[in-house]
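Progress note, sequence design subtask.
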């Protein structure tokens, strides 16, 4: 393998190892951040990368983004990424797991399930307005200070500050977020996408997800096509293809190994599936990826 399957900044030897939240200053932890991002990697928690000033690149799956002042990115669990920042870069990395958002707070559940993180993570990052960035900086400094103290209700304070921080982020998506939260159709769509993210290796039929969502396959297809312009089967297929592309681009695995990882027992079936979905063969795509991985 060229990349570690999972790499974590949440060090087990830390006194706060049990706390499912951490915040770091890029400037003060430059060596640790560089070591953490030595290779493209995945992780089991949400990571928000806020670049206040400086430059560099961020690879997310097969896309490479140029870092700009006051740009902010969201890396979701399982998303392949690699951050390369220059020595002048300043900013913060906020890491937290999903459980931290669901500690009895229905508002957090609403923000998570409504599609904020899905929309955020699928975007090419966002540029923050100067006024909002200034207020977010104040909240961030409060989180840094709170994370270093030993007072009562530390977790609760951090969770509240994080909630305020995320509300500011959501305001940058005000238009699309209002649309997402106004319709049940979009709520169903996001639940479907979340289930696909979890079960795509074992559940390949629309009926599998319809059963989990307690709706009929025809209804699920209708809603998904209405909200995304593509049927549910397209999203299942594309998620499988994305994982295949990740492993082709960032590992030395052969086609048989990739097929096995994705639950295909017949290599010929996988080869046909990949060609039909991408328009190119496994070998041709692997050659194309050499440009990205060696660039």
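Output:
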């Amino acid at each position: 393998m060229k990349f570690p399957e999972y790499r974590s900044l949440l060090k087990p030897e830390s006194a706060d190892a049990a706390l499912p939240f951490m915040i770091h200053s890029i400037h003060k932890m430059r060596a640790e951040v560089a070591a953490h991002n030595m290779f493209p990697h995945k992780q089991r928690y949400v990571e928000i990368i806020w670049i206040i000033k400086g430059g560099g690149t961020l690879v997310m799956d097969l896309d490479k983004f140029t870092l700009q002042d006051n740009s902010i990115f969201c890396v979701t669990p399982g998303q392949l990424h690699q951050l390369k920042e220059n020595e002048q870069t300043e900013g913060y990395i906020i890491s937290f797991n999903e459980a931290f958002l669901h500690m009895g707070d229905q508002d957090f559940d609403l923000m998570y399930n409504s599609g904020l993180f899905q929309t955020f993570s699928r975007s090419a990052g966002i540029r923050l307005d100067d006024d909002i960035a200034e207020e977010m900086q104040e909240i961030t400094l409060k989180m840094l200070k709170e994370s270093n103290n030993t007072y009562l209700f530390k977790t609760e304070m951090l969770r509240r500050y994080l909630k305020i921080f995320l509300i500011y982020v959501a305001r940058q998506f005000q238009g699309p977020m209002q649309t997402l939260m106004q319709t049940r159709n979009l709520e169903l769509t996001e639940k479907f996408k979340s289930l696909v993210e979890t079960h795509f290796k074992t559940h390949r039929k629309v009926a599998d997800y319809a059963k989990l969502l307690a709706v009929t396959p025809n209804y699920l297809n209708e809603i998904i096509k209405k909200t995304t312009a593509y049927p549910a089967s397209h999203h299942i297929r594309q998620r499988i293809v994305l994982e295949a592309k990740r492993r082709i681009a960032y590992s030395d695995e052969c086609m048989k190994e990739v097929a096995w990882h994705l639950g295909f027992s017949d290599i010929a079936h996988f080869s046909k599936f990949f060609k039909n979905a991408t328009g190119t063969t496994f070998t041709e795509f692997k050659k194309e990826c050499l440009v990205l991985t060696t660039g």
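The longest strand covers residues 46-53. Work on this subtask will continue into the next period as scheduled.
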